[in-house]
Design a protein that fits this description.
Blueprint: H1 2-13, E1 53-55, E2 61-65, E3 72-78, E4 84-92, E5 96-105, E6 113-118, E7 126-131, E8 139-144, H2 148-164, E9 167-170, E10 190-194, E11 201-207, E12 216-224, E13 229-237, E14 244-249, E15 255-261, E16 270-276
Antiparallel strand pairs: 1-8, 2-7, 3-6, 3-8, 4-5, 4-7, 5-13, 6-14, 9-16, 10-15, 11-14, 11-16, 12-13, 12-15
InterPro entries: DiatomPyrShell
Signal peptide: 1-16
Keywords: Signal
Length: 279
């Protein structure tokens, strides 16, 4: 009887050694393929007749007051091939800052910076541009306040592209400036998107319209290679009425964009859409 019971147990145990085919698991990925939907940006190109103004390096400050009936401003910054470091701010009155962008480019001629800022009508904000690099590294700036018709086209294009594009959520960290489970570092979630070789320009839209309408704070890097940062941006912008939209240059193969959230988990959530641009 004991022998029979032992034999049965041994036979049952052999089933553990029978080879079985591996079970397929559903493939999940957070990667965003910006060419999946065949969506290309229709943002109007920057006005070619807008003159560029030279701004000397070494902490030079220039300001542009916005008209009361304006709600957008277009800007483009470039250099003669030197590195370019500049800070862009939008002020409403002497104390309230609604936009801050720190720009650090390896080559301002190959990768000029182009952005469109949205703000409320009737407040007459002031755009402030400050060079932060050495005096030997000047830059050129072109600032354009679009007409009502052009502003409406830009707004409609931005909203339509954001609604149609695939978007990923980027969450904040447990403490401002510190990711979950870490004692140091910068921000919460980190998202990295590869840029296809056939895409030389991308339009990036960061917006908290559908995620609480809070202000957002993030770091945007464009890399060529594993960790070769070519363009570095630190962005802080207000909530749902002020989407951040920018056109980044991605010349050459191997480009990717990396976005790091730098806010609290409670109010740092925002969405990002990345669309190929051909303007």
């Amino acid at each position: 009887m004991k022998f029979s019971l032992l034999a049965i147990l041994c036979l049952q145990g052999t089933s553990a050694f029978v080879p079985t085919a591996p079970q397929s698991k559903p493939q999940t990925s957070s990667a965003l393929n910006i060419l999946t939907k065949g969506l290309w940006s229709d943002l109007p190109p920057f006005p070619t007749d807008e003159p560029f103004k030279r701004i000397q390096g070494g902490g030079t400050v220039m300001t542009w007051p916005m008209p009361l009936d304006a709600e957008r401003v277009e800007m483009m910054f470039r250099s003669s091939g030197r590195p370019m470091k500049v800070t862009v701010q939008l002020w409403v009155g002497p104390l309230r800052q609604t936009h801050n962008m720190s720009i650090d480019l390896e080559n301002g001629a190959i990768t000029p910076y182009r952005s469109v800022l949205k703000f409320k009508k009737g407040v007459g904000p002031v755009l402030r541009v400050i060079t932060t690099d050495q005096v030997e590294f000047p830059m050129e700036a072109a600032i354009s306040v679009p007409s009502k018709e052009r502003s409406a086209i830009i707004g409609k294009s931005t909203t339509a592209l954001f609604d149609a594009a695939d978007k990923l959520l980027i969450q904040g960290g447990d403490i401002q400036g510190k990711p979950f489970g870490k004692s140091g570092g910068v921000g919460g979630a980190v998202r990295t998107y590869p840029i296809p070789t056939e895409v030389n320009q991308i339009q990036v839209i960061c917006w908290s319209r559908d995620t609480g309408s809070k202000s957002l704070k993030c770091k945007i890097e464009l890399l060529q290679g594993p960790n070769n940062v070519k363009q570095n941006y630190d962005l802080q912008v207000s909530g749902s009425h002020q989407p951040f939209t920018c056109v980044f240059q991605c010349p050459g193969p191997g480009y990717q964009i990396r976005i790091k959230n730098k806010k609290f988990v409670e109010d740092g959530l925002f969405q990002t859409a990345i669309i190929p641009y051909n303007g």
